[in-house]
Every structure is written in C-alpha cells, then in structure tokens.
What does this fold into?
Amino acid sequence: MRRSVRGIAVVACALFAFVFMGAEKAKPAAKPAAEPIRAKIGVISIITGQGAAYGEAITNGIKLARDEVNAKGEVLVDLKIEDSSGKQEQALAAAQKLINSEQVVAIIGPTLSNEMMVAGPEANASGVPIMGTSTTAKGITQIGKYVFRNALPESQAIPASIGKAVKKHNIRKVALLYGNDDVFTKSGFDTMKEVSGKLKLNILTIETFQKGQADYKAQLTKIASLKPDAVFCSALYNEGGVILAQARKMGLKVPFVGGNGFNSPKVIEIAKDAAEGLTVATPWFGESNDPKVKGFVAKYEKAYGKKPDQFAAQAYDAFHIMANALKAAGIADRAKLRDSLAATKNFQGVLGKFSFDAERDVVMSPIVLIVKGGKFTIFN
Amino acid sequence: MEWLNPYHLQVASFMLINAILGVSIFITLSTGQLSLGNAGFMSIGAYAAALLSTQHQVPIPVGILAGSLLAGAVGILVGIPSLRLSGVYLAIATLGFGEVLRAVLINWESLTGGAVGVAAIPQMGRVILSMARDGGFSPESIGLRNNQFISLSVFLVLLLCTLLSAAFFLRLSRTRVGRAYTAIKLDESAAEAAGIPVTYYKVLAFSQGALLSGFAGALFAHTTSFVSPGDFTYHRAVEILVFAVFGGSEHLLGPVFGAAFLTLLPEALRAISEYRYILYGILLVLMMVFRPQGVIDPALLRRFRRSPKETAA
It folds into this structure.
C-alpha cells in the first residue's frame, strides 16, 4: 500500500512539474494614451474538431479586422487565439489562460452558446469584457455585466421573416418543424411558436428532428397531409437544405420560412432548385450594394479565397466594435473598456447599424431575404 | 503568490475529474466487463446535482451525494439485466443506454431544460469563497486574489475527492471483493466453480463504476456551473474508455494516469493549436503498436517498487 502511494506521489509530481512549466510572467497591458493604444485581445474559437468551419470563418473575420485596425495605427492589437475544439472544459481552460496567463484586456468568443455559459461567468467574475459573435441562445448577456454579444438572436430574426411572409402569402395555417437537440434551433422554434400565437395563426402540427438526421420523410409526409399554407422551419443549413430538397421532391410546394440559421449559400448548394422561395431573416446580406459590405467581401475573398459568411461578418464587426471602444476608452483597461463597450451606439458595420441595449444585447434590424433564381435576394 | 495561476489549477481540476472517471471505468473493467455507459451515469450525477442545487437550493455536498447515489442505483437497475451480456454485446448495450439517457435529457424539457441545459449552477469555488467571507476570512489575508482562491479551493476539493476514491478502490483490490473481481476477470466459470457469486460481484462492480461516474459528473457540474446533454455524448464515453486503454487497465493507476495525461496533453500543446489533436491521435496509434497493454502495467509498477530512487529523480 505505502509503495503504491509513493507511486502516485511520483506521478503527481511529474504531472505538476509539467503544468507549471507553462507558467508565464504577467505583463501590464496599459500604456499612456498619447501614443497608440496597445492592447492584447484574446479569441476563443473552434479551430479543431466538429464546428471548425465556424471557427475558421470567425478567426478569419477577426484577423482581417485586426489588420485594418493595426494599419490605421491608433489602436495596436495583439491577438491571442485559443482553440476550444467546441468543448466546454476547453473553452473554460482557454478563458482562464487568456485571463490569467496572457492577461488580455478583453475576449472575443467563444463560438457556441454552451461554451459561453461556462466561459462567460469566469470572465465576468474576473472583470474581463467578453463578447460572443455567434452565441445566440437566451440568457447569454444576463450572465453578468461584462458579457456582451453582437450575434442577432433568432428571437429578433424570426419575427421579421414570418411577419413579411404571412403578409405576402396570406398565411393562416402553418406547420412547425425544428431540431430539438440544438440550443439555436430550439430557441428559434420557441420564437416561431410565440410569433404564430401573436399573429393568431393556426398551428396544425409541430414536428421535430435531430442533428445529422438524413431522412425527414416521416415528418414531411405528415405535414403535407395536413395541407398547411406554409412551413416554419427552425434548422441549421446542413439539415435545412436536405429538408427543403426532400419536401419539394414529395410535392410539398408551400413556402418555407426560417430564421438566421437557414441563411447560408450552402442551403442553395444542397437543395439546388428546391431552395426557391425560401424566406429567411438575417443581419448579413453579402450581395448588398452597401460600399462597406462590398469592400469587406472583396478583401475577404482576396485574403482567404472564398466569400465571407455571416459568422465571418459578425466576427469582423465585433472586432471593430471592440477597437472603437478601446479608442473611446483611451487606455487598455478592462473596466474602462467594459464601460465604453456598453456605451456603443449606432456603430456602422457590415451588418448595418448596431447598438447594445441596456442588457448588453443586440439592437439591430434584420433584413428579410428570399431565394430567387438560385440566390438570396431582398424580399419585398 | 503570483505563481498560483487559475489557468493551471483549472486544467489540474479537469485532470482530477477525469481521473475519477478513469477509476470508474477501471472498476467495471476489473471484472472483465467492458461498459461504455459511464458517460450516461455521469450525466445522471451531473443533472441530479445541478437540478437539486438550482431548483431546490439543496447544499452542494448533499446534491453531489444524492447525484452519485442515484447514478449508483440506476447502475444496479441497468446492471442486472445487461450483465447477462458480455464482451462487445455489453459494450453496445451500455452505449445504447447512454444514448437513451441523452435523448431523455433532450426531450424531458420541463425538468432538464432540453438542449439548452441547466445554467447558473452554483460553482464550488465561489460558494466556498462566500462562505469564507461570511466566516470573516478574506483570501487577501493569505496573499491570494479572489479568483486564485476560488480555483485553489476547487482544486483542493477535487484533489481530496480523487485521492479518497483512488485510495478506496486501491484498498478494495486487496480485499475479498477485489480478489473476487480478479477471479471473475481471469475466468468466470472457474470463479463460479470456486463458489464466488459471480452475478452479485458483477452487478456490484458495475454499480460501483456507475456511482463513481455519477460522482465525477456531479463534481463536473459544480466546477463548470453549466451542463447540457451535449456534454454526455458517446464521444465522452469513448474518451473515458481511451483513458483506460492508454494508461493501462491492469492496475488502478493506469486509467488515472491516462486520464491525467490525456487531459493535460491538449493543453500543453496549445502552442501548435491546429495540430494538437493530430498529435493526440498519433500518440494513441503509436501506443497501440508499441505498448498495447497501456503505459502502466504490473511489470512497470514492479520496477518502480524495486528502485523508487531512480525514477523519483
């Protein structure tokens, strides 16, 4: 017994030596305001594993914005990008590392709402502003006064698309379809139900599916037999595209209305002609004629060889909001940055006009889009 | 006390929680049963503790205890029928059990909040801090910042829990129960012929493993302060299995070492972010080629014992 205890002790010592080897000296982040403001900003993103595509778009958007800001020279930002691989423990460890080892002035990320639920309270307790660019679940900014987001929640996107579609197609009876194992699609569904109630629509049926499902015929057959005027579908693009393709194939021709999750060129790639008539609401419209959007799309395409999606755009804007707040604060200080972030009003980004409300949540008006001729166009 | 970095303590805390999970899979493996239900049992412990403390204001230790016991009780219920299966069939049945549980967590929205999960679970460290403050103690008096104190107290609680559970099961392996486990593992029919009640001991080991997984889950809930069904997918079940495969399943220290090492590795490799999981994979493949029994096996431990001075240096 004693010997094995000694064995444990040896192993434990070796492991702790390993952990503490990584310890770094903390650096003061603040500098006088006369010269450019130097700041270290941390990013927590999914770089490896499932969901890395989101993380890639987000880090690309942030890096592009960083290069622009640093080129101007008023604010010089040193980015520290940490991987969370989509796991909460890793997001928490990454946040701890950024807060305590890297001594960053603020954090952008993490990617998923679940990760924010874990990293957010820690950053809040340590007094580090943290801003989600893709965290749309309910209750994110209610974590505490250091938690921000610039991602448009489904609760703001969906009423816009439903409102317009109902008016145009004179919809009375609807079927609801949603993914029930995902925070994003679930909260989208909650909003759909609420809005349908407000508009006094007759909900014929509520059907569910799971992430990664390949066959939706059972749900779609049932929906088709009830003859709704429209289907409100809360899905992410990978499932959404397949649902559309299968619905059209079995002759369900009614309009499909979705939220922000449905908004990706990938939907059209997957569903092809079946995507015609899909109505979504989103803050991000890449085909817009706004010179700001055009400039961003061109720069992004040149740098990364593909068009930016909504995640890249949101991250790009988030970084600019952060940089502006730093400039307004005049010093790279966590508490001062928080106050000037919270004061952000009418910031003009690629997603349009942006403000934080009193609870540090998003205020912006989404655009409603419809798929026509194989691409997203503005709905009128 | 500047060297006391909450980041390192955080990583160490996850190493300890995973070490408890490592012990939990070792117990069932020590009777020769391969169970992949540990992630499921972990979710029972985590959700029970989380819901008790958020909705019924039960004190944290009571919630943890209740979560562990509930997981253990479910372990008995699941164990009795499924232990008629063995080998890969048991593995698949328990894996299925875990997935069923996850579907329940997703769909029983009124209780579990569905896919959204349970948020704002009291975090151990913060509760200890506020208790210490009420008792008139301030961390500044021993030169600690608040977040250092929080992380340190979580780490110490987890260290105590891990040492106690490891010590208990190390002890157990030298008792009548432990010998019975070994006998069953080596040859079930021979063990039965020698008068060992095989079913009793198998269910006992299975539910001990379930109880410990639930314990780890409850600790996890109070460390991260958030749980959702996505934490307990089959990836988690496989991860726990890999602790035992990598560390070695012949001795209790094997899975404990595997858990600690494999939790630390991705953190230590943060510098090469994109490639770290590639290295993780390569390491596992190399292990299977050159040391299929895992890092720690009885032969290695014997060598340790003969010359502790050499290795301690």
